[in-house]
Amino acid sequence: MLDADFFRRWMTATAASVAREAGHLTDLDSPIGDADHGANLQRGFTAVAATLEKEAPDTPGAVLTLTGRQLISTVGGASGPLYGTLLRRTGKALGDAAEVSEEEFAAALRTGVDAVMTLGGAAPGDKTMIDALVPAVDALPGGFAAARAAAEEGAVATTPLQAHKGRASYLGERSIGHQDPGATSSALLIAALQEAAEATGE
Ligand code: ADP
Ligand code: MG
Question: 129 CB under 6 A from ligand 1?
Answer without folding.
Answer: yes
